[in-house]
Design brief:
With 358 residues, the chain is of the alpha/beta class. The protein has 2 domains: 4-226, Spore Coat Polysaccharide Biosynthesis Protein SpsA, Chain A, CATH 3.90.550.10; 241-352, no CATH class. The protein is 43% helix and 15% strand. It has helices at 4-12, 34-42, 62-72, 86-96, 116-126, 150-153, 183-189, 202-211, 244-262, 269-289, 298-313, 323-333, 337-342, 344-352; strands spanning 21-27, 49-55, 76-80, 101-104, 110-111, 130-138, 144-146, 179-182, 215-226. α8 (202-211) packs parallel to α9 (244-262), α9 (244-262) runs antiparallel to α10 and α10 runs antiparallel to α11. The two termini are 30 Å apart.
C-alpha cells in the first residue's frame, strides 16, 4: 500500500491541484463492463486523478451509464463522439487531459486494487518519461492468472534507463495500457495511434520506448486485461481485420531504421533495431498462428505480406533466432508457405499455451 502519510497527502491535495494522472478510457458498446472498469478506478485510495471517458458511438447503454456515473464522480468527464476507433478516442482524450501523466485504460478491463499508490510513488520518485507496469489476465469466466510479461518484468528493479540498455522491453505486450506516460513527453514525441484497428497502439508503444530517455519498470500488477471478450476487435470482425498490423509496423520500422542511419543521442542503435525487427516479425507470425484470427484464403495473403515485411526491413547481417522461432523466420525469409502449412498443427498447440495480448 505504500507510505500512509504519502497517501493522506495525495487525498488531501486533489482539490485545486493539477491531477498527477489523467486516466483515459475509450468505450464502444461496453455496457456489461464499463461500471466495473470505472469502479476499479474511482475506489482507489489515491485520489489526485482525472478520468476522461471517450465514447466512439455506442448504441447500447454505455453512454447512459457513463453520464449517470458522472453525476456522482466529479473527477469523471465524458466525451461523446460519432463513430470513432479506439486510437482516435484515446487521442481525443489526450487533448482534454491536464494531468502530469496519462494512462490509457480500456473500458472492458480493470485496474487492480490499491495500484495507484505505488504508481504515484514511483512517478514522483523518478519522474520517468514512461513507466511500464505488470498485468494479470482475466478470463470471461472470472479466473485470473499472471500475464505473459510477468517473468520479464520481475527481472527489473527501481531506476530509469533508455531502451538501448533494456531492448528486451520490446518483448513485452505492445499495448498502450501497460505504459503510463508523461503527458508533455507524449505530446512532444509526435507519436499517434493508427486510425485503423486492431493493433492501432503498436506505433505508440514502440515510438515511446524508442524516444524515452527515462524508462522505469514497476514490478507490480496494476492492470487486469480481459482476454477473448465476445465482440472484441481482435477476436471478431471482418476476416481481413488483422492485415492492419502491417500498416502499423512498417512506419515504426521505417522510423527506427532512419533514426539509426542519422545518428545522434536518440539513435536506437543496431542491436535495438534488430530486437525491434524480431519483435515485429514474431508479432505478425503469432497473429497468423492464432486460431480464428486469419482464416481461409486470407492465410496465404497474410503470409505473403509477412514475408514482404521481413525482406523489406531485415537488418544487414541479421542472425535469425535459434530453435523453432528461427525455423519460422527462415520460412518467412524464403516465402515458404507450403512448408509453413505443414507446421500449422504444431504452431496451434504452441500458441494455445501462451496468453499474450499481442
Amino acid at each position: 500500500m505504500g507510505d500512509p502519510n504519502l497517501e493522506s497527502e495525495f487525498r488531501s491535495s486533489h482539490t485545486g491541484q493539477r491531477p498527477l494522472i489523467s486516466i483515459i478510457i475509450p468505450t464502444y458498446k461496453l455496457e456489461n463492463y464499463i461500471i466495473k472498469c470505472l469502479d476499479s478506478v474511482t475506489r482507489q485510495e489515491f485520489r489526485n486523478i482525472e478520468i476522461i471517458a471517450v465514447d466512439g458511438g455506442s448504441d447500447d447503454q454505455t453512454c447512459e451509464l457513463l453520464e449517470k456515473q458522472m453525476t456522482d464522480e466529479p473527477r469523471l468527464s465524458v466525451e461523446l463522439h460519432g463513430q470513432r476507433g479506439p486510437g482516435q478516442a484515446r487521442s481525443m482524450g489526450v487533448q482534454q487531459a491536464t494531468g502530469d501523466y496519462i494512462w490509457f485504460v480500456d473500458g472492458d478491463d480493470e485496474i487492480t486494487e490499491h495500484c495507484l499508490t505505488p504508481i504515484a510513488e514511483r512517478l514522483q520518485a523518478e519522474s520517468p518519461d514512461v513507466l511500464v507496469i505488470n498485468h494479470d489476465v482475466l478470463d470471461e469466466g472470472g479466473s485470473r492468472q499472471a500475464g505473459q510479461d510477468d517473468d520479464l518484468i520481475k527481472r527489473e528493479s527501481a531506476g530509469t534507463f533508455a531502451i538501448a540498455d533494456r531492448p528486451w522491453l520490446f518483448d513485452l505486450s505492445l499495448v498502450c495500457w501497460n505504459k503510463i506516460v508523461r503527458r508533455d513527453f507524449y505530446l512532444s514525441s509526435g507519436t499517434a495511434f493508427a486510425e485503423k484497428w486492431p493493433h492501432e497502439d503498436v506505433p505508440v508503444s514502440c515510438d515511446l520506448l524508442l524516444s524515452a530517455e527515462r524508462i522505469s519498470v514497476l514490478n507490480h500488477v496494476c492492470y487486469l486485461y480481459r482476454r477473448q471478450r465476445v465482440g472484441s476487435a481482435t477476436g471478431s470482425g471482418k476476416p481481413d481485420r488483422h492485415f492492419t498490423v502491417f500498416g502499423t509496423w512498417r512506419p515504426v520500422l521505417e522510423r527506427a531504421r532512419d533514426r539509426g542511419r542519422s545518428g545522434g543521442s536518440s539513435t536506437p542503435g543496431p542491436d535495438t533495431y534488430q530486437w525491434l525487427f524480431r519483435r515485429a516479425i514474431w508479432h505478425c507470425s503469432t497473429i497468423l498462428d492464432t486460431p480464428g484470427y486469419v482464416t481461409g484464403g486470407y492465410r496465404r495473403m497474410f503470409f505473403s505480406q509477412l514475408s514482404g515485411l521481413y525482406q523489406d526491413y531485415v537488418p544487414a547481417g541479421y542472425r535469425r533466432p535459434t530453435g523453432f522461432r528461427g525455423v519460422k523466420f527462415w520460412l518467412f525469409a524464403h516465402r515458404s508457405y507450403l512448408v509453413y502449412k505443414l507446421l500449422e498443427p504444431l504452431n496451434r498447440r504452441r500458441v494455445a499455451l501462451t496468453h499474450r495480448p499481442t
